[in-house]
Specification:
- By secondary structure, this protein is an alpha+beta fold.
- It contains 6 helices and 5 strands.
- About 10% of the residues are buried.
């Protein structure tokens, strides 16, 4: 749907926000769940999704406090801050056990109790075909190895 070029070591969260803005401009995000891999979660990113009515599922790093406090499937609150004008918002945190026994933690703004831990685990793994496509673009098509050296030549080669 949207591709963008960023400087080397640019913030992936900033790029994700750019992609979200594009989905909003195209008005194609309704009835969709945006799945974020580990590293994209931040309180600001989660708040953005809630405030702009994006349904989301984000993998948490295990060292986050909300992940450490999760056993099973819980609903907790991200506290607001009067200084920055934010309000308390609900967040659902789900503990998922993988086949090898390790645990992952997912955060979402989907509160339907009919959606089980197992269903969230399955939903999260729907991102794997996308990850596989990125691997294909990077390794087989060598999309990061452009023959040109200028911005214009790189953009031309990409498109």
């Amino acid at each position: 749907v949207h591709a963008s070029f960023q400087r080397y070591l640019a913030s992936e969260r900033s790029a994700a926000l750019e992609h979200l803005h594009n989905l909003e401009d195209l008005n194609i995000y309704q009835n969709s769940v945006i799945i974020f891999d580990r590293g994209y979660y931040s309180e600001d990113m989660f708040r953005y999704c809630v405030e702009h009515q994006h349904l989301c599922l984000m993998r948490l790093k295990q060292n986050y406090n909300i992940a450490k406090k999760c056993f099973g499937d819980i609903i907790t609150v991200l506290p607001g801050n009067t200084k920055d004008g934010t309000e308390d918002i609900k967040i659902r945190v789900i503990e998922v056990t993988l086949g090898d026994g390790t645990k992952e933690y997912l955060a979402t703004n989907l509160f339907d109790s009919h959606i089980s831990q197992k269903m969230f685990r399955e939903l999260y793994f729907y991102r794997w075909p996308v990850e596989t496509k990125y691997k294909e673009l990077k390794s087989r098509l060598a999309i990061e190895e452009f023959s040109g050296a200028t911005t214009t030549s790189v953009l031309q080669e990409f498109y």
